[in-house]
Amino acid sequence: MANSDTTFAQSVQSGIAAALIPAPLHDAVTRLCSAAASLARLIALGEIAGDHGSEVGTNLGGDGQKALDVIADELFANALRGSAVCHYASEEQDGVICLAEQGSYGIAIDPLDGSSNIGVNISVGTIFALFPVAETPEATFLRQSDQMVGAGYFIYGPQCCLVISFGAGTQKYTLDPTTGQFVLTAARLTIPAQTSEFAINTSNYHQWHRPIRRFIDDLMQGKNGPRGRAFNMRWVASLVAETHRILTRGGVFLYPGDIRPGYEMGRLRLLYECAPIAFLVTQAGGNATDGRDPILAQPATSLHQRTPFVFGSFDKVARVATYYDTDDRPKA
Ligand code: AFP
Question: Candidates 153, 235, 255: which one to mutate for ligand 1, based on the most atoms within 8 Å of Cβ?
Answer without folding.
Answer: 255
